[in-house]
Amino acid sequence: MGKPSGFMDYEREENLEIKPLERIKNFDEFHVPMSEEERRVQASRCMDCGVPFCQSGMMIGGMASGCPLNNMCPEWNDLLYSGNYELALGRLLKTNNFPEFTSRVCPAPCEAACTCGLHDSPVSIKENENAIIEYGYEHGLMDAKPPKVRTGKTVAIVGSGPSGLAAADQLNKRGHLVTVFEREDYPGGLLMYGIPNMKLDKSVIERKIKCMEEEGVVFKTGVNVGKDIHAAQLREQFDRVILTCGASHPRDISASGREAKGIYFAVDYLTRVTKHLRNPGFTDYIDTKGKNVLVIGGGDTGNDCVASAIRQGANQVVQMEMMPKPPLERAESNPWPEWPKVLKTDYGQKEAIAVYGSDPRIYETTVKEFVADAKGNLTQVKGVRLHWTTDEKTGRRKMEVIPDSEYVMDIDIVLIAAGFLGCEKYVTTDFSIELTDAANVKTKPDSYETSEKGVYAAGDMHRGQSLVVWAIREGREVAKEVDCDLMGYTNLD
Length: 493
Known about the structure:
Layout: H1 6-9, E1 16-17, H2 20-23, E2 31-32, H3 36-43, E3 58-60, E4 63-65, H4 73-81, H5 85-93, H6 99-105, H7 109-112, H8 125-138, E5 154-158, H9 162-174, E6 177-182, H10 190-194, H11 202-214, E7 218-221, H12 231-237, E8 240-243, E9 263-265, H13 266-278, E10 292-296, H14 300-312, E11 316-320, H15 347-356, E12 361-362, E13 365-372, E14 378-390, E15 397-401, E16 407-410, E17 413-416, H16 425-431, E18 455-457, H17 460-463, H18 468-487
Parallel strand pairs: 5-6, 5-8, 6-7, 8-18, 9-17, 10-11, 10-17, 11-12
Antiparallel strand pairs: 1-2, 3-4, 13-14, 14-15, 14-16
Helix pairs in contact: 3-4, 3-8, 4-5, 4-8, 5-8, 6-8, 9-18, 13-14, 14-15
């Protein structure tokens, strides 16, 4: 520990943000990194507490406490404080293939479990991580390093989201010949098209993909496995197959008038917006300029939709949430180091407040009816208020509609960000693999191997909709299992 009193000497400071009314003029990232000296001061706040919950990666109350990747935060915070960037980078990459992604999009369960945050503000672990990885790129430490020896074993990976990329990176470093199949026009999956550019600039993904290609990973884009090429072909051409196709089947809204024009799934909206940004010639995107927009869903994806619609110039954006408004402070039933179930006002909501003068979120409400005009275009949404109670027998929370609580909003476009219901079945059907009741891929106990020998599944396709860090973890773990299956042993971490 470089500075034993750092957590007492210094207050938490964060990177500056471009102010909302300025940053909404474009889709660029809006955080301004602090100086190297300031960042090292922030790293010195790490207590080296001896019980580093930040790296525990435990599940408490159904949510992650600490980093699922078991990142060695105290070690690289200390190295960052002392200016040993190269050693810090080595410790960071020991557990995380893509710090450039996680340091931008992760909700930072490490910080929520930071011991320093028990009585004060947590260490700025996420920003420290970003400083280390960007130093690595700036100083040539992240240049391509192809494996010196090839095993001759071949692995096909279907899907290039964070789980697929992590598995590909690990197996390629081991010396296997890895081919990644992606149905979109560019690798990255959720990272490329599910997360908007201001949150994760696409040049960051392109930079890493280029490096992986130089190291020997083959990417085949525009190939939809299960339609353009089939399971039998992949299993014949490759020694092993890993399915990392995500949980991309969106949850719909069952309400009268759902067939109205102007209702879209959030993932389709965000994908098309990003495609247009990358290629202005792409015209099949959803433009909310001058429109009244309703976002259904209060999670991260819903917030991304709010922020994207504002940047397009929406006339008004409202965000609908079925659940009650979270408390401002932890409840006694939600103690540290559990994930804090408190109100979070994210960047999109902050921008909405700046533009429209109020928080866009409406709590404890849902859609009763979509109303269209004579041409079938959406014109209004009828909502209804909800009340949550606790069942005395089961202890479960249940939702009830409040009588005579209907209200009407003039809405032109609806974006449904209500989560996902599992993986798309055409891939699993093609591979003849079993699914769980939750429509995720069923695997053998304590394994990533599916009901079909030699076929594996990982990431959201295996565990359901989750965080990028969990996807990376499963990608690393499935790579280790496949490597052991191919070679009889593994030396992958």
